Amino acid sequence: MAKPLNEKLRLKEYAEKFGEKLKKIKVCAFDIDGILTNGGITWDGENIGFNRTCHIHDGYGFKILRDAGILVGIISGGDSVGMRKRFIDTLKLDFVFLGNEDKRDAYKKILALGYTDEEILYMGDEFIDLPILKRVGFSATVPNASYEIQEAVDYITHRESGDACAREVMDMLRYAQDIKPVVLEF
Amino acid sequence: MAKPLNEKLRLKEYAEKFGEKLKKIKVCAFDIDGILTNGGITWDGENIGFNRTCHIHDGYGFKILRDAGILVGIISGGDSVGMRKRFIDTLKLDFVFLGNEDKRDAYKKILALGYTDEEILYMGDEFIDLPILKRVGFSATVPNASYEIQEAVDYITHRESGDACAREVMDMLRYAQDIKPVVLEF
Amino acid sequence: MAKPLNEKLRLKEYAEKFGEKLKKIKVCAFDIDGILTNGGITWDGENIGFNRTCHIHDGYGFKILRDAGILVGIISGGDSVGMRKRFIDTLKLDFVFLGNEDKRDAYKKILALGYTDEEILYMGDEFIDLPILKRVGFSATVPNASYEIQEAVDYITHRESGDACAREVMDMLRYAQDIKPVVLEF
Amino acid sequence: MAKPLNEKLRLKEYAEKFGEKLKKIKVCAFDIDGILTNGGITWDGENIGFNRTCHIHDGYGFKILRDAGILVGIISGGDSVGMRKRFIDTLKLDFVFLGNEDKRDAYKKILALGYTDEEILYMGDEFIDLPILKRVGFSATVPNASYEIQEAVDYITHRESGDACAREVMDMLRYAQDIKPVVLEF
Questions:
Q1: Going by C-beta distance under 8 Å and a sequence separation of 6 or more, which residues neighbour residue D72?
Q2: Is residue C91 part of a domain?
Q3: Which residues constitute the domain of residue B54?
Q4: Number of domains in chain A
Q5: C85, C171, C185 member nearest A43 (Cβ)
Q6: Using one digit for the tens of pLDDT, what is the confidence trace for D129-161?
Q7: How would you classify the pairing of strands D71-75 and C27-30?
Q8: Collapsing DSSP states into helix, strand and coil, what is residue A15?
Q9: Based on the number of CB atoms within 10 Å of its own CB, is D51 exposed (0-12), middle (13-18) or buried (19 or more)?
Q10: Which residue from C67, C29, C102, C50 is spatially nearest to C177, judged by alpha carbons?
Q11: Rounded CA separation D11/C65 (Å)
Q12: Is B32 exposed, middle or buried (0-12, 13-18, 19+ CB in 10 A)?
């Protein structure tokens, strides 16, 4: 069998390093642009508007966490047809907040469900994400976020924006909480 | 003449290292998302649905292997117009299984054609690929697959998802079986 | 809290190194293709024409600089529906010059507003950008610009074309002028 | 002024190393998929068909070489609306051969114009390019071409497919022939 590449091995180390924080997590919230996408936006005509590309690994990561009883969703300042198709219609996430750059409202609604700060994980990459990044139990960002964002978070992913960087964090959480996806017998 | 870059040289070494397994291969099956694509999916309107981008080198690799008598095809949990246009209408692959996340059925149909596990090569990157990855004669995945997938396969490609990582495996198979594509005299 | 990655730390060093020049900047102008995009252009049908993809971080960078009283805009030889939607309709930049490969006219119009060369920052990547790159107070380009362009500018970004390389320069300017984006209390 | 990055400096060295061959070049021909594109193809509906993305730097490179009297064009096995819009309608290249995987015909038509093998530069990345790559005065390919292609060419670019790798070769040719693009006085 193949020897897993180094980054993967380190991911288990990080899961251990942040174990105390990660074990408390019950909610995972993600920004879209620059986290679930590579930051790219493309005008696709009046019917679609500005469009983005998501990564299939992040989508499957959502599914794994949900199956394990973790609440998963989106808090994005942007909004578009494609994102609704992906996160509401297809992935059917537990919560999808779109189109408000003041993300405090969405966060308060999550708290109102009965969760505490330390039970929430958030991943974002911009100044509008800072209020939440500073409050949550575990915060993460990407390597190309501005200095002030990188300085404020618990963890900076090795994968770049849109290259399944969210899945990197989800996998780390999975290792920390010992979540094992169902694998069919064959 | 140029001195080929290092990765290419190593590819011949790998072909030798895995020679015993690769020489038995008669069927090559690939997952789509994250293998034949970079994992990106984009909403492209009601007529096209979620869309993906494939790599031309993988397409030509299919052709080379088929010309050498190897059965080539797809086992994908996803399904879309673009993928049908590419793999059925254009490349006319020997088998194209789409839209079933339980990939055991497709695999059984290949076995039913008279092939054995050790004659099949499979490349996939997600937990739903594990049942097949664990059974086939030669298994491969990509550098950004989750730890459990990397740990289960024979070979992890050097190329990333969608960057012709399938062709890397096809070329390795080609070297192991001494398959030489036709090059026109001039 | 996470230790910011190295490039970010160096960015503050560069801001210091170029402090004298950057402190005078009152106008920031950017080329589109190869700077605000990764250089890619895609035919998208008669209604959209040739299309490009922009980066969300550059868009937010424009907003931060404008809030700090800096004039921001575009001087591009290209022109397309998507670029108008992005830079005029959505981001509402202070100036957007499109469709003229002779960029001297646009530059003169900026000077006519009462600004001097040393108060203008420009980022471009092609020979048609050289006349302006050589005149402005601070000039920048990307790692894959031709030798003659790289040789002519003050700064070559670490990020590649379209990967928020403009934001890298904007952040550097921000550090040099001590511009702090508003972060909501929470 | 900025110190140009290392690759650029080496490009001038390569121009010198291959000077004898490059000085004779009067015609530059390029493959599309995997050279002028990153190898990606995307189904874009019946009106557009399979679509590709080109790089703006390669486009400007064509212009520079044409202004210097060099014949520039395409020999591609593929064909699509977008490529015709880009290479015929927009860039108006000297020759555009599309849709024939046997590239010998196109090459013979170039010879019929009165050029000799050693006056032609060709860049391609697949087995169907080998007949021409082996004949021309200067041949180039990309880092992810198969071993046999890399082994057959004079030069392997540092830039990847679609990331203006053609411009890298054009710039090298430019340095070898001392071609200086017009830069407007200002």
A1: D27, D28, D29, D62, D65, D66, D93, D94
A2: yes
A3: 18-177
A4: 1
A5: C85
A6: 999 999 999 999 999 999 999 999 999 999 999
A7: unpaired
A8: helix
A9: buried
A10: C67
A11: 37
A12: buried
CB A106 within 8 Å of CB A79: no
User: Which amino acid, one-letter code, is at A18?
Assistant: F
**Residue B12's Cα: distance from chain center in Å?**
18
Sole residue written with tokens 């780390």: A172
Residue type, position D99, single letter? G
Instruction: Identify the CATH number of the domain in which residue B124 sits.
Output: 3.40.50.1000
Residue of A nearest to B42 (CA): A53
Q: Where are the alpha helices (DSSP H) in chain A?
A: 6-17, 19-23, 56-67, 81-84, 104-112, 130-133, 147-152, 165-176
3-state DSSP assignment of residue C157: coil
Identify whether D8 is part of a domain. no
Interface pTM, i.e. ipTM: 0.95
Tokens 């469009």 — which residue? A51
Residue of C nearest to A53 (CA): C53
Closest approach of chain B CAs to the CA of A53, in angstroms?
A: 5
Interface test with A, best of B21, B139, B144 (most A CBs within 10 A): B144
The total number of residues shown for chain C amounts to 186
CA distance D177 to D186: 26
Give, for all 186 residues of chain A, the pLDDT tens digit: 576 666 677 888 999 999 999 999 999 999 999 999 999 999 999 999 999 999 999 999 999 999 999 999 999 999 999 999 999 999 999 999 999 999 999 999 999 999 999 999 999 999 999 999 999 999 999 999 999 999 999 999 999 999 999 999 999 999 999 999 999 999
Q: Terminus-to-terminus CA distance in chain B, angstroms?
A: 18
Q: A160 to each of A10, A37, A121, A149, C55, how far by Cα in Å?
A: 16, 10, 19, 15, 13
Interface C:B, ≥3 CB–CB pairs < 8 Å: no
Residue A11 lies in a domain: no
